[in-house]
Amino acid sequence: MENTLGLEIIEVVEQAAIASARWMGKGEKNIADQVAVEAMRERMNKIHMRGRIVIGEGERDDAPMLYIGEEVGICTQENAEAFCNPDELVEIDIAVDPCEGTNLVAYGQPGSMAVLAISEKGGLFAAPDFYMKKLAAPPAAKGKVDINKSATENLKILAECLDRAVEELVIVVMKRDRHAGLIKEIRDAGARVSLISDGDVGAAISCGFAGTNIHALMGIGAAPEGVISAAAMRAMGGHFQGQLIYDPEVVQTGLIGESKQANIDRLKSMNITDPDKVYDAHELASGETVLFAGCGITTGNLMQGVRFFGGGARTQSLVISNQSSTARFVDTIHMSGQPKVVQLH
Ligand SMILES: O=C(COP(=O)(O)O)[C@@H](O)[C@H](O)[C@H](O)[C@H](O)COP(=O)(O)O
Ligand SMILES: [Mn+2]
Ligand SMILES: [Mn+2]
Question: What is the pTM of this model?
């Protein structure tokens, strides 16, 4: 799969990031999102592949593009056998978040990215538009920390795995009222908390790399973003666990249905009979082949954001593949006009 998609998937996230970055700092989160969606979809539809969106733009808001179930790629056309080779005709599932951190883009804040994950058909958990309690940690702590344990216990385990004191750990938590208790517990245990307003995909994946000074992500964010994070962590061997959160009283923000019972019923209708199940990265991204691709919109821990210059733009992307066991950083200069200068660094 990876061989046939190759460079093109990088271009998909690059194009989404470039489009969105033009709206950086303009206070228009919906436009920053919309242009990323359009650019991602346009580039995807030029690829010789047979893709289906399993996580996309809004499960319930009738999104016109990159909606769940949309077929993308040239080989989804009728009589595709005539112009696509057998590899290209293999059905693949795609999870997208063309603008992960729309607020971050709108307000010129760090850490927004265009992201997607790909696997063979059925290889990605089609997460409902719910919330998810998440625990991400470095490869050294994989299978040792556990979302069922308290934050205090996990911090001790993490400190041992990383051969350092609890005080030397930095834990990312989304700044939300629902996390008041969690933040207090982490601080009381001695670790340091880095609060983020948005963008928990970047925070989760940052745990996978030493040198980011982020050692874990804890707390509740969105479930679709959890699957994309899990795909990246699965592909690179980091720790990721997620548990759906369906009780509006726990979440305290956003819209996740009218009541806890209504949400349980909705999950049942989606064949999720155990709403409290804890999923690990291999269950959220269970495919034999799992590929993650992201491109920085604004600069974050992992990648630089889009930098425009007269006649072009420069991007940095990250592609993580379990097939080739690589985390590949790709630095690209895009020449759209006749640039006077194409800078080396
Ligand atoms: O920050 C986020 C927003 O994503 P997007 O809408 O694509 O810009 C995500 O990283 C979070 O995972 C998540 O969407 C968030 O926690 C849910 O929002 P909230 O109800 O404010 O907690
Ligand atoms: Mn998002
Ligand atoms: Mn988004």
Answer: 0.97
